[in-house]
Amino acid sequence: MARGVLLLSGGLDSYTAGAMVRAQGLELFALTVRYGQVHAREIEAARRVAQALGVTRQIELQVDLAAFGGSALVGDGGIPKDRPLDDEGSIPSTYVPARNTVFLSLALAWAEVLGAETLVIGVNALDYSGYPDCRPEYLDAFARMATLATRAGVEGRPLRVAAPLRRLSKAEIIRQGLALGLDYGLTHSCYDPLPDGRPCGRCDSCRLRARGFAEAGAADPLVSASTT
Asked: Is 27 helix (H, G, I), strand (E, B) or coil?
C-alpha cells in the first residue's frame, strides 16, 4: 500500500484532507508539530483526529517557532478579531513566517525514511486568510524542490505534495467531509479559545469555519456543544 505523511493540526482542513487521501487507499502517518502556538489545545484535537483516521503512527514534534516570534499565533501580539475576511492582499498577524515550509520539510524527512510517496497538507487557496504559503504555486514550487533535494527524487522516485483542498471553499471542504462521515466535533479551529476551551467565535479561523458551515447548510457540532 502506498504511504503518505499527513500534516495534522487537529483542524477540520487537515482532518478532511487526510480522510480524502485515505479513501483513495493511502496508508497515513501523521505529523503534528508543537511550534509554540498559543492555541495548543489543537494538539489534543490532533490526537483525536489521528485515532479517527486510523493512522499507522502519529509523531508529535517540538519545533519552537515562538523563539523567533513574528506572529500572533506564537504570542507576538494579540489575535485579531472581527477583521474583514475577504481583505485580499493583506497578510494578517496570524501568519507564522515560513511555517508551512518548515512543516513540509519535516514531513519530507520522515517520508524519505518511511519510503512514502506523498506529503499531505490541508491548505486551500480560497478561504485561507491570506497566507502566502497556502497558495497552489507555493505547493508546486515545494514539490519541485523536494525532487531536487532528496535521494528519492534523484533516484527517480519524486515525492508529491497532495493538497486535495487547494481549490475548495470552506463550505465545499465541509460537504466533502460530511459525505465521508467525518465527526467535526473532534476538531479544533479557534486561534484564541476561551479558558474553558470553547471557540471565541471572533478570530479569522472561527469566522471562516462558521461561514463554511452556514454555506454548507450544516450545523457545526462544536457550536452546538458549547450552547448546551
From this structure: strand
Of residues 1, 59, 57, 58, the one with CA closest to residue 27: 1
Give the confidence band of 171 by pLDDT, cuts at 50, 70, 90: very high
Residue 127 has pLDDT above 70, yes or no: no
| Architecture of the 3-226 domain | 3-Layer(aba) Sandwich (3.40)
What gap in Å lies between CA 55 and CA 3, rounded to an integer?
Answer: 11
Residue 228 has pLDDT above 60, yes or no: no
Residue 129: pLDDT over 90: no
Phi-psi sector, 198: left (phi>0), alpha (psi -120 to 50), beta: beta
Give the start-to-end residue ranges of the domains of the chain. Answer: 3-226
User: How far apart are alpha carbons 226 and 85 in whole angstroms?
Assistant: 24
Cα pseudo-dihedral 132, 135, 141, 144, rounded to 10: 140
User: Cα–Cα distance between 153 and 87 in angstroms, integer?
Assistant: 38
Q: pLDDT value at position 21? A: 98
Q: How sure is the predictor about 224, in pLDDT bands with cuts at 50, 70 and 90?
A: low
Please write down the long-range contacts of 69-77, taking CB distance under 8 Å and 24 or more positions apart.
70/96, 70/97, 71/95, 71/96, 71/97, 71/99, 72/38, 72/191, 73/37, 73/38, 73/39, 73/191, 74/35, 74/36, 74/37, 74/38, 75/36, 75/38
Q: Does the pLDDT value for residue 156 go beyond 80?
A: yes
| 182 half-sphere exposure, CB direction, 13 A CA radius | 31
C-alpha cell at 176: 466533502
Residue with cell 519524486: 158
